[in-house]
Amino acid sequence: MMPRMRIAIAGDHNGLLMKATLVEWLTADGHQVDDRGTHGAEIVDYPPLCADVARQVLGGHAERGIVIGGTGGGEAIASNKIRGIRAGLCHSTFLAEISSAHNNTNVLVLGAKVIGPAEAVAITSTWLSTPFKGERHQRRLDQIAALERGEPLH
Ligand SMILES: O=C(CO)[C@H](O)[C@H](O)COP(=O)(O)O
């Protein structure tokens, strides 16, 4: 059974409907969901939303974060600028599985112009329920953390 988690979720204007679908599904599935916005249809910038979700995760208020954009590309770039965030842009359940198993991602990024709501639910479910494999993958995440600190890799 999938562990129940505290999840911070955000999306820009493109992600509004998909966010509503995921909030409903996650809540029905027993997760504690914190919807960080946006809440209206007006056009907004996504980097502050990415930063907000990252803050929730890094501050321990949420175990995982989800960010939704049009394609999600910019959201992944923005999220991965923040030290300690490993954000995976996943547009298939296979990518979601590897994102958790190999990359131990703490933020899932989705693109509402790329996939539909049913795929978003399947991807999110896979991402949440797939455990991190550790071992050689942990070594690589340690190397990524060293890059974040500006240390050279040999
Ligand atoms: O997915 C995104 C970035 O990767 C954004 O949702 C997208 O760029 C927003 O564009 P617009 O303001 O034209 O809707």
User: Which ligands does the model contain, each kind named once?
Assistant: ribulose-5-phosphate
Global structural class:
alpha/beta
Shape: globular
Q: For the CA atoms, what is the radius of gyration? A: 15 Å
Look at the structure and give the CATH class: Alpha Beta
Strand fraction: 15-25%
How many domain modules? 1
CATH superfamily: Sugar-phosphate isomerase, RpiB/LacA/LacB
Helix percent reads: 40-55%
The count of helical stretches stands at 6
What is the first-to-last residue Cα distance? 41 Å
The major beta sheet can be summarized as: 5 strands, parallel
- Mean of all residue-level pLDDT scores: 97
Tell me the strand order in the biggest sheet: 2-1-3-5-4
Q: What's the architecture in CATH terms?
A: 3-Layer(aba) Sandwich
Number of DSSP E strands: 5
What is the succession of H and E elements? EHEHEHEHEHH
Low-pLDDT residue intervals, each spanning 5 or more residues: none
What would the CATH topology be?
A: Ribose 5-phosphate Isomerase B, Chain: A
Organism: Asanoa ferruginea
GO molecular function, one term: ribose-5-phosphate isomerase activity
InterPro entries: RpiB, RpiB_LacA_LacB, RpiB_LacA_LacB_sf
Protein name: Ribose 5-phosphate isomerase B
Overall description:
The protein is α/β, with parallel strands linked by helices. The chain has a single domain, classed as Sugar-phosphate isomerase, RpiB/LacA/LacB (Ribose 5-phosphate Isomerase B, Chain: A, 3-Layer(aba) Sandwich), CATH 3.40.1400. It is 44% helix and 16% strand. It has a 5-stranded parallel β-sheet, with helices on both faces. Helix 1 links the parallel strand 1 and strand 2. Helix 1 crosses helix 5 and helix 2 packs across helix 3. The radius of gyration is 15 Å and the shape is globular. The protein starts with 5 loop residues before the first strand and ends in a 6-residue tail after the last helix. The mean pLDDT is 97. Ribulose-5-phosphate binds next to helix 3. It comes from Asanoa ferruginea. Keywords: Isomerase. This is Ribose 5-phosphate isomerase B.
